[in-house]
């Protein structure tokens, strides 16, 4: 057959038109990023003092209580009460409002929205390899990359102080994360777009990256992740009832719903969730049947939102699948970064995770029931978070270094690493500015935590400790 003399042409929609434009050179992208310093000099990121019209932090927390299960709200406050670091974990909405008052370069990424130190960890890829990455996306939304960086740096200082480390050790660890972010971002800027997309931080890369003194602890953490299989979790979370596995109750942290309508709502959500998966994964999931569902309390900031564990069985009782279903609401970044383009906040979470994570869970999806939005993922499939308690100064520095790398990799996938690199430059001007901010905002976090302690003692807030 003769070849057509007039090959087909693409229509000129806005998206297709972009294919006709040559990609800007690395030099052009670096220069464009450097030019953004005019809008926000790197040194301008250092100062923090609460503005006169700063919202009352406890009022911000209470505002979020309205959408939570009332009987679980005291558990949330009890967990936040335990330390300034625990308070920071639950105070993403407070910090988002504060960060929105500060200068930004104008360069945007798919921000994690809650990039504190405990929201990084290890998980299994579909190929069963173990990788290190950002692992919490409840607040994800396109926004300024600086917001994630500042929350990470602040969390390092607050975690170090909570652990009894000296101010110097805390600042040094935060500086290590910032240097790692800047240098790794420069490396991603030199790579092709496809290479950045493929980049992972696997076990071998982590061990090569860290000092020898930290490798033993990291090897222990990776070994723990290998043991966090579905079968391992099944043994911990279930008991036999009439010869069949059922989820164990541990009120109020793990409970079966007594309202029959709750079960129907979960099945409605699952029907929608199934359609959000790729066809091959739909077929895989259809081979499993639901055996049990229970409500579970998780985390700090998430306490009080609706979260469930679903136990499913496949070919036999030895073929389990554990899914976690979490309620998703408006991101804390939305008042300042703009609304999500996705109508379902579960979809917002999952799409953000797929954009930034190197190799996401195969069962990531979303659904809706009775007006509530949910996202779904596997529960504890080789997932583990680095043990933060009792870290030495060297161990905190090494872990901060690793988290800085992971955050740079996440931002490089969704933003332009060359423009961010052009803005950051080769010097440590930005690093030193953000360390100063982190120290000042750590003071703010301690003051806000003290306000919560005082409110609980005065009986203004009900907190349930020990749960």
Explain this structure.
The chain is α+β, with helices and mostly antiparallel strands. It is built from 19 helices and 12 strands. It has helices at residues 14-19, 26-35, 57-65, 73-81, 84-90, 92-99, 145-162, 167-189, 193-198, 203-209, 212-227, 230-237, 260-276, 279-286, 334-337, 345-356, 393-414, 417-424, 429-457; strands at 108-111, 120-124, 130-134, 141-144, 238-241, 244-247, 254-255, 289-296, 307-313, 320-328, 365-369, 372-378. The chain is globular and about 65 Å long.
Could you outline the blueprint of secondary structure elements for this entry?
Elements: H1 14-19, H2 26-35, H3 57-65, H4 73-81, H5 84-90, H6 92-99, E1 108-111, E2 120-124, E3 130-134, E4 141-144, H7 145-162, H8 167-189, H9 193-198, H10 203-209, H11 212-227, H12 230-237, E5 238-241, E6 244-247, E7 254-255, H13 260-276, H14 279-286, E8 289-296, E9 307-313, E10 320-328, H15 334-337, H16 345-356, E11 365-369, E12 372-378, H17 393-414, H18 417-424, H19 429-457
Antiparallel strand pairs: 1-4, 2-3, 5-6, 7-8, 8-9, 9-10, 10-12, 11-12
Helix pairs in contact: 2-18, 4-5, 5-7, 5-19, 7-8, 7-17, 7-19, 8-17, 8-18, 8-19
Q: Any descriptors?
A:
467 residues; alpha+beta; two-stranded antiparallel sheet; 14% strand; disordered N terminus
In short:
By secondary structure, the protein is of the alpha+beta class. The chain is built from 19 helices and 12 strands.
């Amino acid at each position: 057959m003769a070849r057509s003399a007039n090959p087909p042409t693409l229509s000129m929609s806005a998206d297709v038109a972009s294919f006709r434009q040559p990609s800007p050179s690395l030099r052009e992208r670096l220069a464009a990023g450097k030019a953004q310093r005019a809008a926000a000099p790197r040194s301008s990121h250092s100062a923090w003092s609460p503005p006169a019209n700063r919202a009352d932090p406890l009022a911000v927390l209470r505002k979020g209580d309205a959408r939570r299960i009332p009987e679980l709200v005291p558990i949330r406050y009890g967990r936040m009460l335990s330390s300034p670091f625990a308070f920071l974990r639950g105070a993403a909405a407070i910090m988002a409002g504060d960060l929105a008052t500060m200068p930004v370069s104008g360069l945007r990424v798919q921000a994690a929205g809650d990039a504190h130190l405990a929201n990084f960890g290890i998980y299994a890829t579909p190929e069963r390899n173990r990788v290190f990455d950002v692992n919490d996306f409840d607040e994800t939304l396109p926004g300024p990359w600086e917001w994630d960086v500042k929350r990470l740096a602040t969390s390092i200082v607050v975690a170090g102080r909570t652990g009894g480390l000296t101010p110097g050790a805390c600042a040094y660890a935060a500086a290590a994360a910032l240097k790692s972010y800047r240098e790794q971002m420069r490396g991603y800027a030199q790579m092709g777009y496809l290479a950045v997309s493929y980049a992972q931080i696997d076990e071998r890369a982590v061990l090569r990256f860290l000092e020898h003194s930290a490798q033993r602890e990291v090897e222990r953490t990776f070994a723990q992740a290998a043991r966090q299989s579905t079968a391992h979790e099944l043994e911990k979370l279930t008991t036999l009832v009439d010869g069949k596995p059922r989820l164990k109750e541990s009120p109020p942290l793990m409970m079966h719903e007594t309202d029959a309508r709750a079960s129907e709502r979960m099945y409605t959500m699952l029907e929608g969730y199934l359609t959000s998966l790729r066809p091959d994964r739909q077929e895989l999931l259809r081979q499993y049947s639901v055996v049990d569902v229970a409500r579970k309390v998780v985390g700090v900031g998430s306490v009080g939102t609706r979260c469930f564990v679903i136990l499913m069985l496949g070919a036999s009782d030895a073929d389990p699948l554990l899914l976690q279903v979490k309620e998703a609401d408006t991101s804390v970044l939305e008042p300042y970064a703009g609304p999500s383009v996705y109508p379902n906040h579960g979809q917002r979470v999952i799409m953000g995770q797929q954009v930034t994570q190197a190799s996401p869970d195969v069962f990531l999806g979303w659904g809706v029931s009775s007006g509530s939005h949910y996202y779904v993922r596997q529960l504890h499939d080789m997932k583990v978070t680095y043990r933060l308690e009792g870290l030495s100064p060297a161990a905190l520095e090494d872990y901060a270094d690793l988290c800085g790398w992971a955050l740079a990799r996440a931002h490089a996938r969704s933003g332009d690493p060359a423009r961010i690199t052009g803005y950051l430059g080769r010097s440590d001007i930005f690093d030193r500015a953000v360390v100063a901010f982190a120290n000042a905002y750590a003071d703010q976090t301690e003051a806000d935590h003290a306000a919560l302690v005082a409110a609980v003692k005065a009986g203004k807030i009900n907190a349930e400790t020990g749960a």
